[in-house]
Design goal:
By secondary structure, the chain is an alpha+beta fold. Helix content is 36%, strand content 21%. The chain binds ligand BES and zinc ion.
Length: 642
Amino acid sequence: MIIKYFVVGALALTIVSGCSDESSSNTAGSTKVDQSASTVADVSKTKIETKTIEVGKDYHSFGNPESIEVNHLTLDLTVDFSKKVLLGTAQLDFQKIDPKAKQLVLDTRDLTINDVTANGQPLNFKLAKADSFLGAALTIDIPANVDKVVISYQTSPEASGVQWLTPEQTAGKKHPFLFTQAQAIHARSFIPLQDSPQVRMTYDATIRTPKDLIAVMSASNDPDTERDGIYEFSMPQPIPSYLIALAVGDLYFKSMGERTGVYSEKGILDAAASEFSDTESMLIATEKAFGPYSWDRYDLLILPPSFPFGGMENPRLSFITPTVIAGDKSLVSLIAHELAHSWSGNTVTNATWRDLWLNEGFTTYLTYRIMQMIYGDERFEMEAVLGRQDLQADVDSLAASDQIMAIDLRGRDPDVVFSNIPYEKGALFLRELENKVGRENFDKFLLGYFETFAFQSITTEQFVNYLEQTLLKDHSTKLSKQRIQQWIFEPGIPTDAPVPESDAFSVVDQARNAWLSGAIRATEIDSDKWVVHQWLYFLNNMPEKLSQEQLADLDKAFSLTHSKNNEIAHSWLLISVNNWYQPAFKRLHQYLTSIGRNKLVKPLYKALSQTPEGKVMAQKAFNEAKEAYHPLTVKANEGFVE
Ligand code: BES
Ligand code: ZN
């Protein structure tokens, strides 16, 4: 199947030739468009079999915001740790976009709906049969004068967006813990709502917990709140559903600055606060470069190690994996990343998951810039080179259609399509724009972009339009429309894309080469001053095959098997699996059973699954760890251990 993107006016079309039955069955009305309809209609009348992407249509939500749009949510939920359910009500306030609209359609997954009322009166509702990854549409009949409904419901213990941890699975071992992860399409597993990034709503919440625990949300949090088991929140700025987040546990707070602080279990609070002590400076620097921070406070919540991501940009309260607490701030670009989302993502939001690169590409670009402002050029350059290498690895391994930034996700589960493309290709594209027009001009452009689209959810095409009307117009000799189209709608990395370079890595290349040629032993490598990034570069660029002697030489010289840095340990363990270096396997087992961050465990499971012996090890670790893994980590790895 050949997939080609044609861009007409503001619209991108997927033209599919040689369509299989399966893909053509996805075709939903081939000429339906939201903008520039005439241009598109012309093209879709061509003889080629077309499968038009309706730009801006969210193929991952059943919601009907085009008819009735929810704009406020009031939650009242009780957290029942013994049953592993959230139970209570969600009131949805909405506006009829179509005055004749008679039904409100919401997304749900594995929810039990008890009843739906308006003004105390029951309303008719219907829960459709569940789709395998989209969940089930909930359709509510709306009488003429009604503008809010109250849904009484409860979640399932298997809710895809909620992880329930037993006391043993926490650091303190005494209290249970709960956290949610809504992005991309998991909010629907704990709240019935229009689970689409193009629907923005404000929210209020009352969360009822066991008395000795604290609840925090992606909203106003009071660090001095009394532990009384009833917590009130309000998020006065309209946010998309994927940014609604809740965590409950034995949490403590430590301030890191005027507007920044950290929540975590007691045992790691001090370590977290000192690891992330530059958060306030990052916030100030980012505001200075890219415009005011719109979200009041910026706090971090450090989760138990089963958190499936590195971080999640829940507004006012980023959720952070503890695996980046390395003791030397070497992995804090994660904080820069989640903070940067306050601009790119939370203020200007992708309209659909096809447009994810607008969130992640801009954020990755800003991350590099923040790291440069706080830690200087050398670190900036090293991180850019490592990012470029991650991108190359994905370009080398992904199908061409998955290398496209504005990716066609119709019929696909966004969790499964996760890659570096929206991140690093997006960032490299922006870096090219910056290089061409100069940093000062590009920063002005970014400032204007964040201001123009603040609190809106936008499509790739809206961005391209804006780019054409601003930067492209002002710098028409330096930029071309065609080149922009290539970056966004075609696979691969355009030729002559920027090539990040780092002098700090040249010495590493020299050392690696000398060692590989046998000219020097590992102990002779002059690595005393190497930083974590240099170690990562050293390891990640080893040839695929190393001998047992070589591995033992490295391990003996640098104790890599026992590295406390989780990224270095990851790189080393991956090399160990690929070369069957058994002295590292005990550590490998311990690593896989103590960390649930998917980016760190998935490549190891994948590598193990390549051989029958490896698979046995993978099965052992997976079965032991499964209980404590997040549903997303289970879903991403269970295929490797079958
Ligand atoms: N928003 C993402 C996490 C995400 C993306 C969840 C898409 C679900 C769907 C978050 O900001 C992120 O990018 N996390 C990365 C951070 C890294 C790139 C610094 C992660 O978790 O690895
Ligand atoms: Zn991100």
